[in-house]
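Researcher: Here's a chain I'd like modeled. Treat it as a single chain, no partners, no ligands.
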Amino acid sequence: MQVEYELGSTGDRLIVGYASNVKNTPAIRQAVLDGKFDAVVVKSSLVPDPLILAVAANKASLYKSRDCMRTRSIQTEILYNLSFSTNISHSLKTFGAADDDRQILVCAINKDLQEAKELVEGDWISLESLQ
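Model: Modeled as a single isolated chain. Structure tokens:
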């Protein structure tokens, strides 16, 4: 249902969950933009393995601890680190979930996904289904 990684550079925890058949992606995106939902919502079609998210989160966590992030929050820093582009807005648009996405990955740093499970109207499935 979800997987947890310890980020080696800082000791933070990344928890990743996979939701399918999501009916309220626009509301989820708006909650993230409004700061009411403290998680990263990623377009699952661009992430073949959750380990890629762990690497991006590890880098973001390290940059946060060193006070040298290129974006304003650790959540957007994770999306930025997923991209090969150095254009922040392009990275966020490419890897962040769009309104019409029905399969999403939800990632949280140092907290469980209970809030996400209450907000997301869809089926939480195994990350093995990602491939």
